[in-house]
Amino acid sequence: MKIFELEEDVICECSEAILLALGQKDEYTQLHSHRVVSISEEIGLQLGFNKTQIKILRIAAAFHDIGKIGIPDSVLLKPIDFNDEEWEIMRSHSLKSEELVNSMHFEDSDIIARAVKHHHEHYNGEGYPDKLKAEEIPIFSRIISLADSYDAMASPRPYHNSRNHNEVMSILESENGIKHDPKLFEIFKEIIEKSKYKVD
Q1: In a 3-state reduction of DSSP, which class is residue 176?
Q2: From CA 115, how far away is CA 135, in angstroms rounded?
Q3: What is the Cα 9 distance to its own chain's centre?
Q4: What 3-state class would DSSP assign to 30?
Q5: Host H or E run for residue 37
Q6: What is the pTM of this model?
Q7: By C-alpha distance, which of 36, 17, 25 is closest to 155?
């Protein structure tokens, strides 16, 4: 086995272990992360990403919400809307995810850490944590953002019911060019129609 393949296996096992730990706090986030990995990979393959780029995308997607392991249960599992203080705590999960990835010091961890840090940036510059816009946002982050948004709305949570496919796509259409990269969204629309993760 090549060193690259060995390292990739170790990283994947590590991500699985951490997601399992997160699942002890919040099973939804664990399962959600698995789906985001798969949807993100489908987009990356359609974009023609090479093996290394797919590896980076998969690991970043797996770790995008891993910082939630450091969010208090009183916030993470709250069944009603957050107040301002709670919302700031929840928003910190992207920075916590970045910090966790950076602590691992594996190949491309700097790229992966940046990808997870910025998956809540918006295409129009109104996201967080750094208000990056358009091409300033890493391509991996822009892909994960789409996969994350689709699955989050399509899945039930304590604070909202699941939406059907048409409802989710209508919301994503309204956010096109505002929250999401319009070019990636066109690709996503084709991908999700054929994906096993498309909801009814």
Answers
A1: strand
A2: 13
A3: 21
A4: helix
A5: helix 27-46
A6: 0.89
A7: 36
